[in-house]
Design brief:
single chain; about 675 residues; alpha/beta; OB fold (Dihydrolipoamide Acetyltransferase, E2P); Rossmann fold; nine-stranded mixed sheet; seven-stranded parallel sheet; binds adenosine-5'-diphosphate; binds magnesium ion
Length: about 675
C-alpha cells in the first residue's frame, strides 16, 4: 500500500478532513468504502412493476410535456409516457424546464427509477434516462456511495479509481487458500466492487469480500476466547437487596427473577461477569440494572451506566434516583451537555468515591473519568453503540459487565461484537400488559387518526406522532417532514390540544425541555423523529402514529410501538404509508399481527443485512457490510477452518496473513469504540 491519501490528485486538505471525519485515513480505508447499494440498470421491466424497486423501463412519450412554474423560479416538468403494455405514467422533473425539448412526442426513452402511485397514476420523480438510440451505455450497474461532506460522488469515484490504479495492493490471503475456495483476487475484487463490469463479476467480488468479513469476525472470536479475566471482587449483603425489591411498586416477573439469579451466580463465580440481558421492549430490563447496581453500592463499589442517547441517560438517571436515593445511594448524571464545571465536580466525586452510580452517555468513558472503585459497567441497548467498550473499562479496574439489549443477536455476530458473552433472556412481559392494537392505514385516514388521538387525550392520555428522518433524496417531496407534520397537526387541533416538536436538530437543552413538557403533561401530543425510538418510557402514552412507516425497519417499528403499552393503559399503534406494494404490505402485516420482538427481529434480519440491522454503517464499522449471519453460514464455517489452519501454521505466507488479520482487527476495534 505504497500510496498515501494525500498523494491522490484532487484530494485537498478540506476533503481529506471530511474523509477522516468518516474514519477514512488510509488508501485501504478508501478502498473499503463500499457502495451502500447498486443501481442495477440492467434489470428491465414494465411500469406496473416499478413500485417495489428501481428498474429500467422502456417508454414512449405520449405527448409533449407541461412545465408548471412555481414561486422563486422553481418549476415542475411533467411528461406523460406509456410502456409496451400500454400503462401510462408521468415523468416528473424539478427545476429543469429545458428538458421539455428532449421529450418529443413518440420518442422512445429508457428510464431508470422507482415508481410511485399518486391518485391512481404512476409517477417517476427525477428518473435517470437515456434516449432510445444511445441506450447501449445505459445498461450499467452503478455503485451508490454514502455522501461525504464537500465531496461529490464523482470525485469520490475518481479518488477510488486512483487508489486502485496506484496502490500496490497485495492479497493478504495465501494463494493456496484462494485456490481452494475459488476466490477472486483482492485487487480484482475491489475493482469489481467499485467499477462493476457485469453482475457475475460483481457477485464473485462480493463473495470475496464476504470471506474477508468472515475472516475478521472469526479473528475476533479467536481473540476474545483468551480474554476471560479472573474476578477479584467478593460481593456480600445480597440479602439487603431484598429490601429494595420489596419496596418496588410491583413484583418481579418470574423471568426477571431468573435473570437476576443468573447474574448473582456470575458475581459469585471466580471470573468476571460478561453477560447480556436480552428482553423485548417493555420487559423490564432497567430494574435488573437498578438492583444489581444497588448490590455493588452496598459493597462499596461504583457502577457506570451507559445509555445510547442523552435523553435516555437522563431518564434512567431520574429512575435510578427515584428508586435508590431512599436507600442512601449517591447518583450522578454525566453527559456531553453537562456544564464543564459541573462535569468536573462529578468527576472529582467519582474519583473520591462520593458517587456510587453514574449514569451517562459516551462522555462517561472519556479518559478523564477516573473512578475510585468501579465494579460494574452496564450498557443499555448496546448494539446502538457499535461494538465493544469492554476494553475501555479494562484499564479502570477489575469490572463486571452487563449489557442490555432489546434486539436479539445471532450467536456468531454476538461473539464478534461483544466477545464471549453469556446470555440471559427475559422472555415474559410484566402482568397486565395488553397488546398494542396495531393498524395499517394510508394517509387518507390521517384526520380520522387525529380525531382518535383527541379522544384519547380527553381520557387523560398522550400520543406520539413519528416522522421518518428526512434525507436529501429524489423522493423528498414524498416524505412527510417533521416540521410540516408539526404544522399540520397543530393546525388540525387548533387550541384544543397542545403539540410539541422533537427532532435531532434541536440542541440538547431544547430537547430536554420538549421531553419534560411532554412528561409533565404540559403537551398532549409529541411530533418527533425516531429520536424517541430507543428506550423512552412515558407510560401515559396510549397512542403512537408512525408516518411513512415503510421507511422504517421492522425492528425499528416494533421499538417505536414499544413506546406505548408500557402500563396497563390500552394502547394503539397506527402505521401510515401510501406504499401499497406487495413487499410493504407484507412488512406492515408482520407488525400488525406479530407482537414478539424476537420473531420480528428475525424476520428483519432475513429481509435486510446485518449492516443495516445493527446500524453499523452509521458507526463506520465497515467490518460487516455484505455478509449475512444466516444466509452465509457456509462462509462462516469455511473461514473458521481457514483461521484454524492459518493461525496454527508456521509457513511464512500464513504467518504474514495472521499478522495482518490481527492488526486489522485491533485497529477496527479501536476505531469503533471511539464512536
Ligand atoms: P425495557 O426492558 O424496555 O428497558 P423498562 O425497564 O423500561 O423496559 O420497563 C418498562 C416499564 O415496566 C417500566 O415502567 C417499569 O417500571 C415497568 N416494570 C418493570 N418490571 C415490572 C414488573 N415486574 N411488573 C410491572 N411493571 C414492571
Ligand atoms: Mg430499556
Amino acid at each position: 500500500m505504497a500510496l498515501n491519501l494525500t498523494e491522490i490528485k484532487g484530494l485537498g486538505p478540506k476533503r481529506l478532513k471530511s474523509l477522516q471525519n468518516a474514519g477514512i485515513e488510509t488508501v485501504e480505508d478508501l478502498l473499503n468504502t463500499f457502495p451502500y447499494h447498486y443501481e442495477d440498470k440492467t434489470v428491465t421491466g414494465f411500469i406496473d412493476e416499478s413500485l417495489e424497486k428501481k428498474l429500467t423501463v422502456k417508454v414512449k412519450v405520449k405527448e409533449r410535456g407541461k412545465v408548471r412554474y412555481l414561486e422563486r423560479k422553481r418549476s415542475v416538468l411533467i411528461v406523460p409516457v406509456f410502456d409496451q403494455k400500454g400503462t401510462e405514467a408521468d415523468l416528473v422533473f424539478f427545476n429543469q424546464p429545458y428538458q421539455i425539448k428532449r421529450f418529443l412526442k413518440d420518442k422512445v426513452f429508457y428510464i431508470y427509477a422507482k415508481g410511485s402511485l399518486k391518485d391512481g397514476r404512476y409517477k417517476f420523480y427525477s428518473p435517470k434516462f437515456a434516449e432510445g438510440n444511445d441506450a447501449k451505455d445505459f445498461f450499467t450497474i452503478d455503485p451508490v456511495y454514502k455522501k461525504f461532506d464537500g465531496i461529490p460522488e464523482a470525485a469520490l469515484k475518481k479518488f477510488i479509481h486512483t487508489a486502485l490504479e496506484f496502490s500496490e495492493l497485495k492479497d493478504f490471503l495465501p494463494l493456496y487458500q484462494r485456490e481452494r475456495y475459488d476466490l477472486m483476487d483482492l485487487t480484482e475484487a475491489y475493482r469489481q466492487i467499485h467499477f462493476p463490469e457485469s453482475k457475475e463479476r460483481l457477485e464473485k467480488a462480493i463473495e470475496r469480500i464476504k470471506y474477508n468479513e468472515a475472516l475478521r469476525i472469526n479473528t475476533g472470536i479467536y481473540w476474545s476466547k483468551s480474554e476471560v479475566q479472573e474476578s477479584e471482587i467478593k460481593l456480600e449483603n445480597v440479602e439487603l437487596v431484598d429490601q429494595l425489591i420489596k419496596s418496588l411498586p410491583f413484583k418481579l416477573t418470574g423471568a426477571q427473577q431468573k435473570v437476576l439469579n443468573e447474574v448473582y451466580k456470575d458475581l459469585n463465580g471466580s471470573h468476571l461477569m460478561n453477560r447480556m440481558i436480552e428482553g423485548d421492549v417493555g420487559s423490564g430490563k432497567t430494574i435488573i440494572a437498578v438492583i444489581v447496581a444497588y448490590l455493588f453500592s452496598l459493597n462499596g463499589l461504583q457502577t457506570a451506566y451507559m445509555a445510547p442517547t442523552e435523553i435516555l441517560a437522563r431518564q434512567h438517571y431520574e429512575n435510578f434516583k427515584k428508586l435508590l436515593e431512599p436507600f442512601g445511594c449517591k447518583i450522578a448524571l454525566l453527559t456531553g451537555s453537562v456544564k464543564p464545571k459541573e462535569a468536573l465536580e462529578i468527576r472529582e466525586k467519582l474519583k473520591s468515591g462520593e458517587i456510587d452510580i453514574v449514569v451517562g452517555t459516551h462522555a462517561l468513558i472519556q479518559e478523564s473519568t477516573v473512578f475510585y472503585n468501579i465494579g460494574l459497567v452496564i450498557t443499555d441497548e448496546q448494539h446502538r453503540f457499535g461494538v465493544k467498550q469492554r476494553g475501555l473499562f479494562g484499564n479502570k479496574g477489575n469490572v463486571h459487565t452487563l449489557v442490555m439489549s432489546a434486539t436479539p443477536i445471532p450467536k456468531t455476530l454476538m461473539l464478534t461484537l461483544f466477545g464471549d458473552l453469556d446470555l440471559s433472556v427475559i422472555n415474559e412481559l410484566p402482568q397486565g400488559r395488553k397488546k398494542v392494537s396495531t393498524y395499517f392505514y394510508t394517509s387518507k385516514k390521517i384526520p380520522k387518526i387525529l380525531d382518535f388521538i383527541k379522544g384519547q387525550v380527553s381520557e387523560g392520555h398522550q400520543a406520539f406522532i413519528v416522522c421518518p428522518f428526512v434525507e436529501e433524496s429524489e423522493e423528498m417531496k414524498e416524505v412527510s417532514s417533521v416540521n410540516e407534520t408539526y404544522e399540520m397537526v397543530k393546525d388540525y387541533f387548533g387550541d384544543s390540544l397542545k403539540v410539541g416538536l422533537l427532532h435531532g436538530k434541536l440542541d440538547q437543552q431544547q430537547k430536554e425541555e420538549e421531553i419534560e413538557k411532554f412528561e409533565s403533561g404540559e403537551t398532549d401530543v409529541l411530533v418527533a423523529t425516531s429520536i424517541i425510538e430507543v428506550g423512552i418510557n412515558i407510560p401515559n402514552v396510549s397512542t403512537i402514529v408512525i408516518l411513512s412507516a415503510d421507511r422504517f425497519g421492522l425492528s425499528q417499528l416494533h421499538q417505536l410501538r414499544g413506546r406505548t403499552g408500557r402500563s396497563d393503559i390500552k394502547s394503539y399503534c397506527f402505521l401510515v404509508s401510501d406504499n401499497v406494494s406487495e413487499l410493504n404490505l407484507e412488512r406492515m402485516k408482520t407488525i400488525v399481527n406479530c407482537h414478539d420482538g424476537f420473531k420480528i427481529a428475525q424476520k428483519d434480519l432475513m429481509m435486510r443485512g446485518p449492516g443495516e440491522y445493527f446500524g453499523f454503517r452509521q458507526h463506520g464499522f465497515s467490518n460487516v457490510k455484505f455478509i449475512h449471519p444466516y444466509r452465509d453460514r457456509e462462509i462462516f464455517k469455511k473461514t473458521k477452518e481457514m483461521i484454524d489452519e492459518i493461525f496454527r501454521s508456521t509457513s511464512k505466507e500464513d504467518m504474514i496473513c495472521k499478522d495482518y488479520l490481527i492488526a486489522n482487527f485491533n485497529r477496527e476495534l479501536s476505531l469503533v469504540s471511539m464512536n
